[in-house]
């Protein structure tokens, strides 16, 4: 039975290409990943604040939800379908990082709380 995974991709634009990077990621890449890898959702974020001493290494985060049997299968889906997606030199592939997390429990929402105004 498939499990739920969240894929986090930290990235940054190639120097001097931030506008092209944002346009590519938002208007091309996210939808292509969903349609080629078969993942179920995608959303982007830009670092707004941080707490802690380590510091976030890259300013952009893309989060995807995927269904698969294992984390390795999620990465295999991503790699096997890469050739079906447009690539852009505006994405700094040298510094990008990917993490796959397996859900360990159900989704909690504020609407599920007993005294939450609906």
Describe the fold and architecture.
With 118 residues, the protein is α+β, with helices and mostly antiparallel strands. It has a single domain, classed as Alpha-Beta Plaits (2-Layer Sandwich). It is built from two helices and four strands. The protein has helices at 18-37, 71-81; strands at residues 3-11, 41-46, 60-68, 97-102. Strands 2-3-1-4 form a four-stranded antiparallel beta sheet.
Q: How helical, in percent, are the residues?
A: 25-40%
Provide the residue-averaged pLDDT: 95
CATH topology: Alpha-Beta Plaits
| Poorly predicted runs of 5 or more residues | none
Strand residues, percent: 25-35%
Sequence of secondary-structure elements: EHEEHE
Name the CATH class.
Alpha Beta
Radius of gyration: 16 Å
Beta strand count: 4
Helical element count?
Answer: 2
First and last CA, distance? 33 Å
Q: Assign an overall shape.
A: globular
Strand order across the largest sheet: 2-3-1-4
């Amino acid at each position: 039975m498939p499990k739920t995974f969240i894929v986090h991709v930290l990235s940054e634009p190639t120097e001097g290409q931030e506008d092209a990077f944002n346009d590519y990621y938002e208007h091309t890449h996210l939808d292509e990943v969903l349609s080629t890898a078969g993942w179920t959702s995608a959303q982007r974020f830009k670092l707004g604040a941080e707490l802690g001493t380590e510091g976030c290494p890259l300013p952009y985060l893309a989060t995807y939800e995927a269904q698969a049997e294992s984390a390795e299968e999620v990465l295999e889906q991503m790699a096997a379908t890469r050739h079906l997606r447009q690539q852009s030199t505006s994405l700094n592939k040298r510094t990008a990082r990917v993490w796959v997390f397996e859900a360990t429990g159900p989704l909690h929402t504020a609407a599920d709380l007993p005294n939450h105004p609906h």
